[in-house]
Amino acid sequence: MTTADDLQDTPAGPDDSGIRVYLVDDHALFRSGVRAELDRGDGRSPVLEVVGEAGSVDEAVAGVGHLAPDVVLLDVHMPGGGGAEILRRARAAGTESVFLALSVSDAAEDVISVIRSGARGYVTKTISGRDLADAVRRVRAGDAVFSPRLAGFVLDAFSDRPGAAPPVDPEVDQLTKRERDVLRLLARGYAYKEIAKELFISVKTVETHVSSVLRKTQTSNRHELSRWASDRRLV
Predict the structure, then answer these.
(1) Average of pLDDT values for 42-48?
(2) pLDDT for 98-122, tens place per residue?
(3) Average pLDDT value over all residues in the chain
(4) Neighbours of 180 (CB within 10 A)
(5) Which of 59, 129, 176, 193 is the most exposed, having the fewest neighbouring CB atoms within 10 Å of its CB?
(6) CA distances from 199 to 182, 202, 205, 214, 225 (A)
(7) How far, in Å, CA of 97 to CA of 191, rounded?
(8) Are the C-beta atoms of residues 73 and 34 closer than 8 Å to each other?
(9) Helix (H) or strand (E) holding 2
(10) How far is CA 45 from CA 2, 17, 35, 173, in A?
(11) 164 phi and psi, to 5 degrees?
């Protein structure tokens, strides 16, 4: 397993014909920055060519299916289901593209979830342009690439040793990032107004998220929901 710190000056894979890259992120400015970094090149081979980009789940699934890129740089948190949903739908459609998660999040649950969904690696947005290019080359060549410290989350998740992180719970996976945020605060005893203030959303939005969480977890009140979250070590 390779970490991003190990990537500098590593040899490229055997295919020097170029790597077609597709960018998926809901922030257009960030996509522009990544495109500029990859298009600038680093004098190494294979050359990376950005062939398309998407800012939503539906757009990403359609674009990957149509363009069949070699590597998809995939944001983890996006409206409409995020990276895991894109992976699920793209895999179901038979794509052979390799997915590399590129996210601001370094939370263990995010790393494990997207890797279990089929991503070949996970790097954070603090990565340098040179290391990102090398990470793309590595996953295209069949390696697994992770930013430092993130590899440990994956090793724990797939390990049987005592103290290892538990497997990802499908019931937890069905919750969106925002629903998990609301759930954690609710389980810690926050009132709706306090949750709204903490997450910079309206009380009405909090109520909507709580209703969705109760439905998805098949619980009926705050006490049951808090116990559900505690049992899964979410608080």
Answers:
(1) 85
(2) 999 999 888 877 888 888 888 999 9
(3) 83
(4) 19
(5) 193
(6) 8, 9, 10, 19, 19
(7) 44
(8) yes
(9) strand 2-3
(10) 19, 8, 17, 38
(11) -70, 155
